[in-house]
Design a protein that fits this description.
This protein has a domain at about 45-190: Ribosomal protein L5 (50s Ribosomal Protein L5, Chain: A), CATH 3.30.1440.10. It has 7 helices and 5 strands, in the order ααβαββαββααα. The N and C termini lie far apart (about 100 Å). The longest helix has 18 residues, at about 15-35. It is α+β, with helices and mostly antiparallel strands. The mean pLDDT is about 80. The chain is globular, with a radius of gyration of 27 Å. A 5-stranded antiparallel beta sheet has the order 2-3-1-5-4. The protein has helices at about 5-10, 15-35, 60-75, 105-120, 175-185, 195-200, 215-220; strands at about 45-55, 80-85, 100-105, 140-145, 165-170.
């Protein structure tokens, strides 16, 4: 067998499941909902930014390494160390000190992270009743705050003694929050239903009959 034939039989990597869902489900749904004439007009996902604050890195630099390892396991990408831009004496903070880690995901890693986040991590949130639909910034971007990193299956609870919060920002090309919410909803984001939607979807209850007076109750049924 020739070497050229071996190279030709190499399989190409499979497309992420979320990207396939975007092409087959999200694009047709957005075209039908908003009446776009061209599929290229449909908003798309640009990037996902995950930030994790490490407040105790000022006293213990090992905590920064542990947080960086956890965020790297969650996202599959090496985090970037974020440092303070200015000094604040009240917080005992000096410019240049490490205060957190950040990861910016694009392309295939972005779709894979969203797939794992929506289907595996969000259902593990305590007392989960849906994501807040009011967390959009008015320009089509969604900001989500998480109280702990232990909802991600990639984090080993035995090696993660401290609970840390995260901030997840999903950047889209949508012009307004309505298109951005529909885009993320079709991707599978479980948003909490608003009060208006609950009122419109809830069937109206029939009014109870008025109680009969004493005279009406004493009147015979034949005369009624």
């Amino acid at each position: 067998m020739r070497r050229d034939a071996r190279l030709m039989t190499i399989k190409t990597p499979a497309s992420p499941r979320m990207k396939t869902q975007y092409r087959e489900v999200v694009v047709p749904g957005m075209l039908k909902r908003f009446g776009f004439k061209n599929p290229f007009q449909v908003p798309r996902l640009v990037k996902v930014v995950i930030n994790m604050g490490v407040n105790d890195a000022k006293e213990d630099i090992k905590s920064l390494d542990l947080a960086s390892a956890e965020l790297g396991a969650i996202t599959g990408q090496k985090p970037q160390v974020r440092r303070a831009k200015k000094s604040i004496s009240n917080f005992k903070l000096r410019a240049g000190m490490p205060i957190g880690v950040r990861v910016t995901l694009r392309g295939a890693r972005m779709y894979e992270f969203l797939d794992r986040f929506i289907n595996a991590s969000v259902p593990r949130i305590r007392d989960f009743r849906g994501l807040d639909p009011r967390a959009f910034d008015g320009r089509g971007n969604y900001n989500l705050g998480l109280s702990e990193q232990h909802i991600f299956p990639e984090v080993n609870l035995e090696k993660s003694p401290k609970v840390r919060g995260l901030n997840v920002t999903i950047v889209t090309t949508a012009g307004d929050d309505t298109q951005a919410r529909e885009l993320l909803s079709l991707c599978g984001m479980p948003f909490k239903s608003s009060e208006r939607e609950e009122k419109t979807s809830r069937p109206k209850a029939r009014p109870a009959p008025a109680p009969a007076t004493e005279a009406e109750a004493a009147k015979p049924k034949d005369q009624a």
